[in-house]
Amino acid sequence: MDEEAITIKLSRDQAFVLSDWLYQVMFRSDDLEGIVHDRAVWSPIYAISGTLDKTLSEIFMPDYGPRLEAAKERLRADLYGGADEPTTPGESDRG
Fold first, then answer.
1. How many other β-carbons are positioned within 10 Å of the β-carbon of residue 87?
2. What is the pLDDT of residues 70-95, one digit of tens each?
3. How far apart are CA 37 and CA 32, in angstroms?
4. 78: which of 13, 18, 27, 72 lies 20 to 30 Å off by Cα?
5. Where are the alpha helices (DSSP H) in the chain?
6. In Å, how far are 29, 30, 69, 79 from 91, measured between CA atoms?
C-alpha cells in the first residue's frame, strides 16, 4: 500500500466553513454514524477535523458566528454569483 501523504488545499473560508460543519456533525448532532456508515471513513474525517482545528484561529475568536456567516456568504457568492440564505437557521452556534 502506498503511504504517500496527500495535500488538500482549501481557502481559509472553505476551511472555516468545513470545520464548522464537521464540528456540527461530529460533536453537536452525534450523527456521524448516521451519515458515514463505514467506520473506516471516520479516520480521514477525524484527521481533517483535527488539522483544521489546529490551523484555524477563527474557531476560538469571540466573534465566531459573524465571521462564519461572512465566510459562508463569500463562498455562496463565489459559487452561485450572489448571496443566498443559510440552509439551516442557527447553524453557526459552534462558539
1. 8
2. 999 999 999 988 655 555 444 445 55
3. 8
4. 27
5. 12-23, 32-35, 42-55, 64-80
6. 11, 15, 9, 19
Predicted confidence (pLDDT) per residue in 40-59, tens digit? 988 899 999 999 999 999 99
Asked if residues 92 and 64 have their Cβ atoms less than 8 Å apart, the reply is yes
Check residue 31 and report its DSSP letter.
-
- The three cell numbers of residue 63 are 466573534
Burial per residue of 45-69, b for 16 or more beta-carbon CB atoms within 10 angstroms, e otherwise: eeebbeebeeebebbeeeebbebbe
Q: Are 23 and 94 in contact (CB under 8 A)?
A: yes
